[in-house]
């Protein structure tokens, strides 16, 4: 498995040479998405303002990670490790929120 | 230790390159181990910042209107400008990594200097913003007394939580930028000595990962801190 991975993009010193076009494309996309998120913040989207802002931010982060940080073409192990960070961050936020944001459901806090 | 490596490097049976540590089979294996190690470090960084993002999410959910009013006191133009500056610095960093993979010494140095200049511009704008916050009594502490810019009424006391989180999160982010500029300076010194070749550019690649990660943190900080409730107030 590892022998196969070593011949992946990370092991090949010339793998980045085809990247300049992709870098400029990602740069343009990041700039457009930044303008989009500022514009969206001033629109009346009801409960959707925050999901839209976070959706744009996640898209930008994925673009940076996939192209600038070369996750594209990285060994599966690296992608697995990165995914683990998102899983644990989700645990951290969800379990904490499940405590704080449900306290008002209990009658003891109503008084 | 270093001597032992050198001896091994020059007298090895396969003519091993001097950059290769003896415990790796070949340079691609060494590079892959470095990348994985750097990513593991960045995972710990995700959870380091994640603690603050969690605190932010909880308090914002509880004190929604106070957070929206406080967020409106941040300068959206400076925030958006800094976002663009940081994205540009990520582009020049990616180009520096590309130049190092081609062994183009002068281009590496040029792109690294551009990255440092853009990082410096970001920090300069941050200094201006912090100065404004001190001038307007928006820094948590005994002199905390922010006023709503339109109604000139004092903000609810919970807005102090927002500004505490604002200074902790942007402060920790700025500290990462300062460390990043230090690392970039170190890379320039190495690049001037001609260390980086198409065969070996791992340090540029690893500092690149770090720099892009710091950019990603700001990509989340900008909408979460600057863009709350802009349509309502």
SS element count, helices of chain A: 4
Query: Main beta sheet of chain A, described?
Result: none
Uncertain segments of chain A: 1-17
Structural domain count of chain B: 1
**Alpha-beta content class of chain B:** mainly alpha
Strand fraction of chain B = under 5%
User: How many separate helices of chain B?
Assistant: 7
User: Please, what is the oligomeric state?
Assistant: heterodimer
Q: What pair of chains forms the biggest interface?
A: A-B, 58 and 55 residues
CA gyration radius of chain B, whole angstroms? 22 Å
CATH superfamily of chain B: Cytochrome c oxidase, subunit III, four-helix bundle
CATH structural class of chain B: Mainly Alpha
Instruction: Calculate the mean pLDDT score of chain A and round it.
Output: 84
The termini of chain A sit apart by 61 Å
- Indicate the CATH topology of chain B: Four Helix Bundle (Hemerythrin (Met), subunit A)
Beta-strand share of residues of chain A: under 5%
Major β-sheet profile of chain B: none
State the share of residues found in helices of chain A, binned by percent: 55-70%
Walkthrough of the structure:
The complex is a heterodimer of chains A (111) and B (233). Chain A is mainly alpha-helical. Chain A folds into two domains: 17-74; 75-111. Chain A is built from four helices and no strands. Chain A has helices at residues 2-6, 20-41, 49-68, 76-100. In chain A, helix 2 (20-41) packs antiparallel against helix 3. Chain A is flat. Chain B is an all-alpha fold and 233 residues long. Chain B has a single domain (51-139, 150-232), classed as Up-down Bundle (Four Helix Bundle (Hemerythrin (Met), subunit A)), CATH 1.20.120.80. Helices cover 73% and strands 0% of the residues of chain B. Chain B has helices at 2-11, 27-62, 64-71, 76-102, 105-135, 159-192, 202-226. In chain B, helix 4 runs antiparallel to helix 5 and helix 6 runs antiparallel to helix 7 (202-226). The model of chain B is unreliable at 1-12 (pLDDT under 50). The chains are: A mainly alpha (111), B mainly alpha (233). Chains A and B meet through helix 1, helix 2, helix 3 and helix 4 of A and helix 2, helix 4 and helix 7 of B.
């Amino acid at each position: 498995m590892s022998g196969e991975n070593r011949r992946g993009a990370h092991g090949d010193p010339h793998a980045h040479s085809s990247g300049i076009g992709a870098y400029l494309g990602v740069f343009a996309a990041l700039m457009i998405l930044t303008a989009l998120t500022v514009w969206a913040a001033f629109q009346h989207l009801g409960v959707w303002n925050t999901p839209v802002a976070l959706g744009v931010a996640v898209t930008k982060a994925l673009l940076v990670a996939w192209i600038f940080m070369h996750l594209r073409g990285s060994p599966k192990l690296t992608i697995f490790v990165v995914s683990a960070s998102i899983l644990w961050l989700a645990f951290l936020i969800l379990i904490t929120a499940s405590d704080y944001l449900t306290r008002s459901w209990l009658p003891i806090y109503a008084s | 230790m270093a001597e032992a490596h050198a001896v091994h490097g020059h007298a090895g049976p396969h003519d091993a390159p001097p950059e290769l540590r003896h415990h790796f089979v070949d340079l691609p294996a060494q590079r892959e181990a470095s990348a994985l190690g750097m990513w593991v470090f960045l995972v710990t960084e995700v959870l380091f910042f994640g603690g603050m993002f969690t605190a932010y999410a909880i308090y914002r959910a509880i004190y929604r209107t106070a957070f929206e009013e406080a967020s409106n006191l941040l300068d959206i133009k400076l925030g958006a400008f800094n976002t663009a500056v940081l994205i540009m610095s990520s582009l020049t960093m990616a180009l520096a990594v590309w130049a190092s993979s081609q062994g183009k010494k002068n281009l590496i140095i040029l792109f690294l200097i551009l990255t440092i200049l853009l990082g410096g511009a970001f920090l300069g704008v941050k200094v201006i913003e912090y100065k404004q916050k001190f001038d307007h009594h928006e820094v948590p502490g005994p002199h905390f007394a922010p006023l709503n810019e339109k109604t000139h009424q004092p903000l609810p006391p919970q807005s102090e939580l927002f500004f505490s989180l604002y200074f902790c999160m942007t402060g920790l982010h700025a500290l990462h930028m300062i460390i990043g500029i230090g690392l970039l300076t170190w890379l320039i010194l190495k690049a001037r000595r001609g260390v980086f070749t198409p065969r070996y550019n791992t340090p540029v690649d690893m500092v690149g990962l770090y720099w892009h990660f710091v950019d990603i943190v700001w990509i989340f900080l900008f909408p979460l801190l600057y863009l709350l409730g802009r349509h309502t107030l």
